[in-house]
Amino acid sequence: MNAKSRDATRSPSKNAQTPPQKGTMIMKSVSIFLASGRRASNQNRKSGGARTQGQTGSTRASKANKRSRMEDASGKLNPKMMEMLKKRTHFSKDELESLCRIYKKLVSNCQFTSRALAASTPSSIIAKPHAMVEGIDRIVFRELLHSTFDIVTEETLMERIFTSWDRGHEGLPIRLEGWVIGLSVFLRGTPIERASFCFRVYDLNSDGFITKDEMFTLLRNCLIKQPQDEDPDEGVKDFVEIVLKKFDIDKDGKVSFQDFCQTVGEEPLLMEAFGQCLPTDTAVQSFLATL
Ligand SMILES: [Ca+2]
Ligand SMILES: [Ca+2]
């Protein structure tokens, strides 16, 4: 038995027995995957993909699912999908295939996570409703934002980034298409694409406006770190007024997408005024270097 097939048989059961370590395990394998880059992927294409499939293929897996996995293990996208993604993203054909391989890797980690959760909490509702939907789930996505994209932010914002990533699929895992389109904005987005993403994140109830209440929630979470303040909320309220003045171009008391774009067009540093939701330049460069 060689190292690869040992890994393939060992990982799922180990995860199932030790759920508290799953986050670390997942990121470990993602980091290794990203760091080893194209060489590892090519190697995997030659031998690992098919063998891993053989070892972990559960009896419940449908034949169709198996077949598509075999095709996708190499990162090959079907021609129609490739054309569509080339039109809608800022990535080349090679980069898209590389991102597809990373997606497959992340999805297999998500499946291990779901199984681990199901095993450790039998009556739990976590992960059950969408357990059968293939995609990148919250847990893996957050770890990725944190350790690969240097996004260190609190829970509300993290949740918003997840749900805004692939619009219209609230609560569901991120699918391949959404993953690639989201990354295109993240890594090579035009100013307007980035502004649109940030605005969606900050518009907490998705009604098309960032209101004072939403600003308060966002800024309060960012700002309150000094418990010695007598009434920290007062400070936040004052700050909301200052920021609103800056953004509310048409003076209707809330920030529309138009207000937001015009303001960040004039002062790009205000793009992430309500909390970090884009990767650092360093993180972008090192991620792109692995493609
Ligand atoms: Ca809103
Ligand atoms: Ca306004």
TrEMBL record:
Q: Where is this region: Disordered?
A: 1-74
Q: Which UniProt keywords apply?
A: Calcium, Metal-binding, Repeat
| Biased amino acid composition, Polar residues | 10-21, 39-62
Tell me one GO molecular function of this protein.
calcium ion binding
Task: Specify the EF-hand domain's residue ranges.
Answer: 190-225, 235-270
Keyword Cytoplasm on this protein?
no
InterPro entries in the cross-refs: EF-hand-dom_pair (IPR011992), EF_Hand_1_Ca_BS (IPR018247), EF_hand_dom (IPR002048), Recoverin (IPR028846)
Ion transport found in the keyword field: no
Q: Which domain of life is it from?
A: Eukaryota
| Protein name per the record | EF-hand domain-containing protein
Source organism (scientific name): Hermetia illucens (Black soldier fly)
Q: What is the lineage of its organism?
A: Eukaryota, Metazoa, Ecdysozoa, Arthropoda, Hexapoda
